[in-house]
Design a protein that fits this description.
This is Agmatine deiminase. One of its GO terms (molecular function) is agmatine deiminase activity. Pfam families: PAD_porph. By secondary structure, the protein is α/β, with parallel strands linked by helices. The chain has a single domain (about 15-345), classed as 5-stranded Propeller (L-arginine/glycine Amidinotransferase, Chain A). About 25% of the residues lie in helices and about 25% in strands. It has ten helices and 18 strands. A four-stranded mixed beta sheet has the order 3-2-1-18. It has a three-stranded mixed beta sheet with strand order 4-5-6, with no helix packed on it. The chain is globular.
Length: about 350
């Protein structure tokens, strides 16, 4: 069995070397609403570069120039921007990017098999994204481990202390032939974790990831858990998210104590041609010195930002307009992947 003590999956609030994103273009699923979604990417770039480096994957030189002009106009710090030309199917870097473990001797890039969320979408180029980064000199020289097992970064949450939080619905969809015990062992071994906590409830309409944990519940810097709640008894999510809240209340920390819980407000339903979109406030991104919070143009945006800020004390709270993102079933955290500070050492 792998030595679980040699590495660990750091919490997102630990120091970072930068954030990795991929710029949308006409050959991605964003083609029909490219201008709209670019407004989110531009705002994200301006926000991230206030605090740390931003690595932007682009398909070609023309897209690189388009992105450069857009973020320059928005006031992004170009001295902190690094462009990487690389082919990709889509822009959900949380799920196709490297899951980076840290240890006393450096880092380990875990490269899990990316299947387009259980075969829903083509993913050949995205599955090769990490090897492409290595071939182009990005992350070069770092230990890299290809793991022939389907897992997305949005499907796991780490407290940095050996605990992984995940959802049964997602992992069971990816591996229907495997028992929970087998999957627990695989997660614990490859992520060098001490324990895996499972949620059996929780979902969002408009989410095609099969209930990724990063749309539902997140470990917080104050030792608690931030989660997406629903207080509207008439909403179809009310019972399921209520059951998820009860599950979270029953979980215990490594010290055997209940987790302080931070329920997030529920945005009014956002529809696109009659289709409900997944407007989760739990899908926020932590960077050095700040937490970037999705905003949907809803009156609950400010309250969500306030609660997330309290759960991550001492950080500036920056709202990023994310309404265009949920058209393609994801939000702020989904399009990013942080790189731990140890990568740059």
């Amino acid at each position: 069995m792998t030595d679980r003590t040699s590495y660990r999956l750091p919490a997102e609030w630990e120091p970072q070397a930068g954030v990795l994103i991929a710029w949308p273009h006409a050959d991605t699923d964003w083609a029909d609403r490219l201008d709209a979604v670019e407004t989110t990417y531009v705002a994200l770039a301006a926000a991230v570069t206030r605090f740390e480096p931003l690595h932007i994957i682009v398909a070609d030189a023309a897209l690189r120039e388009r992105a450069r002009l857009a973020i320059t106009e928005a006031g992004a710090d170009l001295s902190r921007v690094h462009f990487i030309e690389l082919p990709y199917d889509d822009t959900w870097l949380r799920d196709s990017g490297p899951i980076t473990l840290t240890g006393p001797d450096g880092v380990l890039l875990n490269d899990y098999r990316f299947t387009g969320w259980g075969g829903k979408f083509g993913a050949e180029q995205d599955d090769a994204l990490i090897s492409g980064l290595l071939e182009r000199g990005v992350l070069s020289g770092l230990p890299h481990k290809r793991i022939d097992w389907a897992l997305e970064g949005g499907g796991i949450e780490s407290d940095g202390r050996g605990t992984i939080l995940t959802t049964w619905k997602c992992l069971n969809q990816r591996h229907p032939e495997l028992s929970r015990e087998t999957m627990t062992e695989t997660l614990a071994t490859t992520l060098h974790a001490d324990r895996v906590l499972w949620l059996d409830h929780g979902y969002l309409e408009g989410d095609d990831t099969d209930a990724h944990i990063d749309t539902l519940a997140r470990f917080s810097e104050d030792g608690g858990i931030v989660y997406q709640a629903c207080d509207d008894e008439s909403d179809p999510h009310f019972a399921e998210l209520g059951q998820m809240g009860s599950e979270l209340a029953a979980l215990r920390s490594p010290e055997g104590k209940p987790y302080p819980l931070h329920p997030l407000p529920w945005a009014e339903p956002i529809l696109d041609e009659g289709r409900r979109l997944a407007a989760s406030y739990a899908n926020y991104l932590i960077v050095n010195g700040a937490v970037l919070v999705p905003a949907y143009g809803d009156e609950k945006d400010a309250e969500a930002a306030r609660i997330i800020g309290l759960a991550h004390p001492g950080r500036e709270v920056v709202q990023v307009p994310c309404r265009p993102l949920i058209w393609q079933n994801g939000s702020l955290h989904c399009i990013t992947m942080q790189l731990p500070a140890a990568i740059a050492q």
